[in-house]
Specification:
The complex is a heterodimer of chains A (260) and B (336). By secondary structure, chain A is an alpha/beta fold. Chain A is built from 10 helices and 10 strands. The longest helix of chain A has 14 residues. The longest helix of chain B has 27 residues. Classes of the chains: A alpha/beta (260), B mainly alpha (336). Bound molecules: adenosine-5'-diphosphate and magnesium ion (MG).
Chain lengths: 260, 336
């Protein structure tokens, strides 16, 4: 069965059709990349999949279940999680507290009005696990707002992991992250893909072509191409859409020139 | 130094001691009803701050739930029993909670200006009912001449026993709200105030959390209103008017409720002292109070106790800023 599937998914903002009749099936294996110029509807697509926006028409199925009208908090509990294009975290909380939030939700303390949060041993232990995994132990008492840009993106992804997702949607995990840092973020993601399905929106074509098993190209809300890296590279429509074409180095300039 | 730090961290025991000896303090101690007002307003502002300071939701109609409590007490004393206040106070808290439960359900998804306007609108509806429904609420003249009776056989008739009666309820309220603020739910509220979308994507039903905390806040607001009715032995519809809700908003902001758990108490002390004491020297005390509010908020947007948070923040920043950069790169290296 498909892990995630959309049926004629459409979202209009007034006259603008941000996502246009998208049909897509996402299977259990490999990394799926979604690419497309700015404004193509990639973020909107993620917002529709995770319940933050309601589609104008069409449906979303998660493991066969219709989740179109569920809220993000319900969908997250069904093990579909997502990160944000602009890193999203609680700036006034320490790094530890940021991770702790996801952990105590998963462990069922969301409506506990009387436990002292600092004395919940299971929450503490589980949170420490993530601290170690991310090697954040040293600065765990630091407020998240003091983190570097790249680390904020990593914190965002780490928070997604606390819900133990089976599918993780990553929205431009390296946008604004420096070159060397971004390679590291990608190694991190690559490791994650062994444990869960990864769907990633990314602008860096080098990276997209090196890690993806499947690439979907969105343009003006519609699917322009869908296939393996080779298929998409050769696709003429795609080459046209990305001005310079996918010659060595050319596509990267074309994309980055268009995107920011 | 260490104890000084503790006072800043969590001074609730000191607050209890101060209020415990208040009636015996020289000069101010003789203003017993001022002390009682202080306690009542502290209960009200602490409960209000669960919504404003913790959840970041600007409710501008909270006076209505306070007023509901006042009427609950007045009406039960009038029609049910005037011997014992137990039922009256339970009903005050109950109706405070019932109204916020229903209203919270309606507005739990609203945020920002819409949330504020809807709370104002609701309090105005209640105000008009209180003002117009003569047969029940006494309309313009309100309800007066009530009897305080006892509490489970204890006399709370004279000002000093009533003061201590309210004191006990204040202690309970503070401990309960403090407990909530240190609980997972307290954390969720602070989280949704910072980034509600993020909290939802961690699995929190933030709308339901808002609804519940609004209700809890209403229970204590109702209790405070009930105690206020018992203090003055009367109920007037103008407590329901939305401009009255402004008092608790101002006091909470002024004291520093946005930044500190005890901000609302500091705010209540300033507000009540200004209203009860300053006003006896100068009719235009509100001018002074308003000015003080503007000046303080201009310099410390998070209110008086915001200073404490500011100092903490500065220390925190210094502690981490030195090795911030190398921490950053180290961290990503070892992730791979
Ligand atoms: N909430 C919104 N209201 C109105 N228009 C929107 C909204 N969100 C996105 N859009 C528009 O929809 C289009 C797709 O946006 P987006 O999904 O963010 O694209 P991408 O992530 O591919 O860059 C853009 O034209 C954008 O301006
Ligand atoms: Mg986007």
């Amino acid at each position: 069965m498909d892990l995630l599937r959309t049926e004629n998914l459409t979202k209009k903002f007034g006259e603008l059709i941000a996502v246009n009749d998208v049909n897509i099936s996402i299977q259990e294996e490999g990394i799926l990349s979604i690419i497309g110029p700015n404004g193509a509807g990639k973020t909107t697509f993620f917002n529709l999949l995770t319940g933050y926006l309601k589609p104008t028409s069409g449906k979303v199925f998660l493991k066969g279940e219709d989740i179109t009208n569920l809220a993000p908090y319900d969908i997250v509990h069904k093990k579909l999680s997502r990160s944000f294009q602009i890193a999203s975290y609680f700036p006034e909380f320490t790094i530890f507290e940021n991770i702790q939030m996801g952990v105590f939700n998963r462990l069922g303390y969301s409506y506990n009005y009387f436990a002292n949060i600092n004395k919940l041993k299971d929450v503490h232990k589980e949170t420490e696990k993530y601290m170690k995994m991310l090697d954040l132990t040293e600065q765990k008492e630091m407020k998240a707002k003091f983190l570097s840009h790249g680390d904020k993106k990593i914190l965002d992804i780490a928070m997604c992991l606390t819900v133990e997702p089976e599918i993780l949607l990553l929205d431009e995990p390296t946008s604004g992250v420096s070159g060397t840092e971004s390679t590291k973020v990608f190694n991190f993601i690559k490791n994650l893909s062994k444990k869960m399905k990864i769907v990633i929106v990314e602008h860096d074509m080098d990276i997209v072509f090196s890690i993806s098993d499947r690439v979907v190209v969105l343009a003006q809300g519609s699917i322009l191409a869908d296939g393996t890296v080779e298929e998409v590279r050769k696709n003429e429509d795609v080459q046209k859409a990305y001005l310079g074409g996918f010659t060595e180095g050319g596509y990267e300039d074309a994309i980055s020139g268009k995107s920011k | 130094m260490k104890t000084k730090n503790n006072i800043l961290q969590d001074p609730y025991l000191y607050i209890f001691i101060i209020f415990l000896v208040y009636p015996f303090l020289p000069y101010i101690g003789k203003y017993r009803s001022v002390g009682t007002e202080l306690l009542i307003w502290s209960i009200f502002a602490l409960s209000f701050n669960l919504v404003l300071g913790y959840s970041g939701l600007p409710s501008f109609g909270h006076g209505a739930f306070f007023g509901v409590g006042t009427y609950a007490v007045a009406l039960t004393l009038l029609h049910l029993t005037s011997k014992d206040v137990t039922i009256s106070l339970i009903l005050a808290a109950f109706f405070g909670g019932l109204f916020t439960f229903f209203y919270g359900f309606i507005i739990k998804k609203k945020r920002g200006i819409y949330f504020s306007l809807l709370t104002v609108a609701f309090s105005q509806i209640l105000y008009v009912i209180g003002f117009r429904w003569d047969e029940v609420t006494g309309g313009e003249t309100g309800i007066t001449g009530l009897q305080r009776g006892g509490f489970l056989g204890i006399q709370i008739n004279n000002p000093i026993t009533y003061y201590y009666f309210v004191f006990v309820l204040f202690v309970i309220t503070l401990l309960v709200i403090r407990k909530i603020s240190n609980s997972p739910v307290g954390k969720v509220l602070l989280a949704l105030k910072q980034d509600e979308k993020r909290a939802q994507y961690l699995g929190f039903n933030t709308e339901r959390q808002v609804w519940f905390i609004f209700t809890i806040s209403g229970i204590f607001a109702g209790l405070a209103g009930g105690l206020h009715g018992l203090l003055h032995l009367s109920a007037f519809s103008d407590t329901l008017h939305w401009t009255k809700s402004g008092d608790v908003v101002m006091a909470t902001l002024l004291g520093g409720g946005l930044a500190n758990f005890y901000g609302p108490i500091v705010g209540a002390i300033i507000f009540i002292s200004a209203r009860e004491i300053l006003s006896s020297f100068w009719d235009n005390w509100l001018l002074l109070y308003g000015l003080a509010f503007v000046v303080i908020i201009l310099f410390i947007p998070t209110g008086l106790l915001g200073i404490v948070e500011r100092i903490r923040e500065k220390k925190h920043f210094e502690q981490f800023n030195n090795n911030r950069n190398n921490i950053g790169s180290k961290n990503t290296q070892e992730i791979t």
